Structures are given as structure tokens and as C-alpha cells.
Amino acid sequence: MTQAKEAQTTEPKKDLEDKDLIKISDKENPDAKWYVVHTYSGHEQKVAITLKQRVESFGFQDRICQVLVPTHEKIVINEGKKRKVDEHIFPGYILVNMVMADDTWHAVRSTTGVTGFVGMGTTPTPLPDAEVKNIMKFMRMEAPKFEAKFRVGDSVKVVDGPFRDILGKVDEVNEEQGKVKVLISVFGREVPTELDFLQVTPL
To answer: Of 16, 68, 121, 201, which is least surrounded by CB within 10 A?
Structure first.
């Protein structure tokens, strides 16, 4: 149980990591706005790096300023082992801070891995500043969440605690707290028992 509690009190991130926020220019352009760009899922980071290189080769640093790949830290528990992973908040999407014009649009749109801009019809729609700030705040402050490799109805084996080696069935899963409720047979009756994710393993 102590492991789950420690995970929930993880220190917030103070700054966005370089791999999440790619600064193409150190100077901010007051006319630049944030746009949502659709990419091939799983290629978000690669597209962001490629875009930065293309912008620099075109000399557009003053008009395409930053690329953001929204991620947050999550705790994945598999086979009784806990590890931290960076999970994409919006799989298949990146945010680009830019001044929209024909040439900058083409520079982004023609980048390998980009499938288009998000907007009404053929016109890219900028994100409100407040929404972008909320995304960045979520990336900085969100404590790691748990992800379990079992679902309600799955059969599991208890691997720690007083019910060790007893088999049971998952009745509830609480990813926020890293806990699972398991129905364990005691004296012929099913008794619901709350356990930490690390105390059970799927069969």
C-alpha cells in the first residue's frame, strides 16, 4: 500500500521537458497562435523534431516558434512490476505555435507524418490561449496515474498480504488510487477485498 501512496504524492513537474516543448525560436511572436496538427499516431515526437528541422531550413523561426507534444506521466503495473511511462494526452496530435500564412501552412502540412490541421472546413482554427495554458498546466501538475493490466471480471491471483496465493475475481478497478476490489472465496462465500495493484496479478 505504501508504494501506491508514494506514487500519488509524486512531486509536480516544474518545467516542461525539452522533448515535450520544442522551442524553435527563443523569441515569442505576439501574432503567433497555437494550432492543432494531426499526425500519424505514435509518430508525434518524430514529426515535431522533423518540423523543427524544416522550419530552420526554411528560415521561418520568427513565424513558426514552438511545437508542443502533450504528454503526462503514468504508472503502468504489469506482472507485479511498476514503471513510469510518458503517455500522449492527445494521441495523433501535436500543437504548433505559428503565424498562419500560405508559406507557413505549407511548411507544416508538407512535413512527413503530418496529415492536416484541425479546423472548420479547410481553415485551421487556433486554440484559445486559456485552453493551451490548461494543457500545459496539466502536463506540469498532474500526478502519475495508474494503469492496470486487468479488467472487471478477470481472474487474478493475490501475490502479497494475508490472502497470498488465493485466487479471486476482479469486481472493481480504481485507477486513480491504484486499487482493485477482488471477490475472494472464504468459507464458501465471496468476500470483497480491497487490494493494491501490486498485490494481485492477472491469471
So the answer is: 121
CA distances from 138 to 6, 126, 164, 174, 189 (A): 20, 19, 38, 20, 44
Number of domains, the chain: 2
**Predicted TM-score (pTM) above 0.85:** no
Residues 6+ apart with CB under 8 A from 134: none
Domain holding 187, by residue range, is 150-202
Point out the domain boundary residue: 102, 123, 146. Answer: 146
Q: Which residues contact 77 (CB under 8 A, 6 or more apart)?
A: 146, 147, 148, 149, 178, 197, 198
Q: What CATH number does the domain containing 86 carry?
A: 3.30.70.940
Pair 92, 38: CB distance under 8 Å: yes
